TrEMBL record:
It comes from Pedobacter jeongneungensis. SUPFAM superfamilies: Carboxypeptidase regulatory domain-like (SSF49464), Porins (SSF56935). Residues 131-231 form the TonB-dependent receptor plug domain. Residues 319-761 form the TonB-dependent receptor-like beta-barrel domain. Keywords: Cell outer membrane, Membrane, Receptor, TonB box, Transmembrane, Transmembrane beta strand, Transport. Its main location: membrane. It is found in: Cell outer membrane. Signal peptide: none annotated. PANTHER family: FE(3+) DICITRATE TRANSPORT PROTEIN FECA, IRON III DICITRATE TRANSPORT PROTEIN FECA. Transmembrane segments: none annotated. This is TonB-dependent receptor.
Amino acid sequence: MRILIIIAFFIGLSTVQAQYTVKGRINLGASAAEGVTLSLLPTNFKTQSNAAGDFIFTNVPGGQYQLKASAVGSKTVIRNFTLRKKDIVIDISMEAESATQLENVDVISKNEAVSGKLRQVEGTAIYASKKTEVINLANLNANLATNNARQVYGRIAGINIWEYDGGGVQLGIGGRGLNPSRVSNFNTRQNGYDISADALGYPESYYTPPTEALERIEIVRGAAGLQYGTQFGGMINFKLKNGPIDKPVEVTSRQTAGSYGFFNSFNSIGGTVKKLNYYAYYQYKRGDNFRPNSHFDQNGAYIHLNYTFSDKFSLTGEYTYMHYLAQQPGGLTDKDFNADPRISVRDRNWFKVNWNLMSLTADYRFSASTKLNWMAYHLKAGRDALGILQYIDRPDPGGARDMMADTYDNYGTELRVLHQYKLFNGQTSTLLTGVRAYHGLTLRNQGNADAGSGAAFDFLNGEPSSSQYRFPGQNLSVFTENIFQINDKWSITPGARFEYISNEANGYYYKIQRFVPNVKINESKQNGRSFVFFGIGSSFRPAKEVEIYANISQNYRSVNFNDIRVLNQNARVDSLLRDEKGYTADGGIRGKLKGWLSYDLSVFYLKYNDRIGSLNVKSEDLTETYRFRTNVADSRNIGFESLIEADFMKLINAESKYHLSAYSNLALIDARYINTQETAIKDKLVEFVPPLLFRTGLSFGAKKYDVSLQFSHVAKQYSDATNAEFTERAVDGVVPAYNVMDLSASYNWKWFTLSGSINNLLNEKYFTRRADGYPGPGILPSDPRTYYLTLQFKL
């Protein structure tokens, strides 16, 4: 008996002293729930679910517990359990008290859809009644090593893509008939903060996060301007991965080889150690493309550190580095492209980018219904373009090359407070208020540089011979939105934003004269203005899985002073450019059908006043033709967008381990110039707007393997406001319609994944862009058929 007592004592002691892990996922409806408070009773342990709905408690002694899950707008759930001998996983499904919490992002799972939408409330942001889209990268079978935009954004309706960069070094997308140039018509963000060169003076993005490091991509259309700024296109946010919360170390290594000397090495490490979550990656990429004079090398790195001080307060620091050097083969004339798109008539053009981006973010939860988010960020970056800007139908004249050198030094901070409260018969309404302060500084120099053929980024005589400018800018914004939940089916969301914007230009340029020396002209400009713009949206749910939504929001885009003094004989800029104003209205119906089909059908109207565009004009002496950038007219874009996605295996068997999914993405857009005295462009089609965009795909697979086929059709479009069909210089003219097909496959075995992709499967000869400067000028051919193979190791 004494021995049995001793044995029982030690067994009990070991049970008490053992430490276990309690983890799981919170689901609200059919999707993950963020920000739910988890309490482990009778202890004082507390935590919150993350964006994926995951939660974890570590170092929990054995014994009997209650797990309490609570959130504003949802019914509290309590689960009883006993910890003994092993860790435990508890998944909790919660029910919403009101419709405010019912709009979801699809759960990230191999058997779920790649695309989804944002919830009405995400973190400290409101997306109710807005056209929102989400791409879940974990489920996407595509060529991620090259950031293949055609595949990545295949399910986003109305997106026009510039495809001239086979390595995926730069991204060029535009929505609803807006210029795709370096994502300049979106407010472009990474983890919520700006990443463009200068959000005020030069909103172009030379840095694009590697797709292999992304958790998801969030897109909010025109109405995003109330919360994120004045861009007509809306907001695009690249959400990078965090380290896993259920393991201290996870290592991923992806090695990709492809056509034309392409090689990509992506390596990451992440995990959670006590209260610290970390994630870091390093990427090296190189390639030669299919044309001569087109080699590139890219290095990128990123680190994310998040420390949770308590269940109320966490702090996140991030640093991003990217550098690349690329030789640019230049553009082609129509004649040369039709003869052989592989040729290059420029061998002295180079492009260099250096990017350093730092951020600090604090999250504080005052209570279950009130939370605060503060972020500050700093961009220190630059880009240098070196080469020959003369018309592409003329040979390289030799001698000194033209160089444009930019330096960007920007600071920004943003504070948001979100509060949920009861109103209208106990329904949960949500108030968001915020303030943003931003200071941008662009230094731009242009002049003659090294006469050789290498990547020597130095001005002759040590200073720019064409122009030198400082472009400081300041922005102060205050914004608010409120979801008024009238009942469990209907909500109204009004909002407003106050903006103060100040742009300056200080420097000099040389006026070029034919028969006498050039004249140096000093110039100083300042333009300060303030305004308020408004928006309102509404959402109605006639059934649980069906939503009808609509919104209208004013938009604004300021003139960029640092575009005015670029000396380029292919393009000239009106010195009297005016700010662009307008509004976007859209509405639609979206939902799901019995878990196997999802749909989003919508229409939009985009009014763009004083639109800045390009006219194809002749010089006064009629000796040359060039693009003239000015406020050409008002324009209006009318369109229909649809995305329908279905998994036919779920239709047959909801619990099937296989998936057979298909999607159809269609956009019809009519964009025309109106209210203009310029007869050359009246009622003409707006440039860079294909009237038809159609993408469709089919995917079959299971947990371990997947095969996907995608088809894209883009209709004929124009490159200038006069709708010129052809010009000798190739700067203007049509961009013919094209069809492209992509095939991807992957197989997973234990820690290894082998994947491959054949892009442009049918070897279509096409192009998507005519450039008036770098990296052209002229036609920029897109890649022919290419092959890629990736081996991934994950442990």
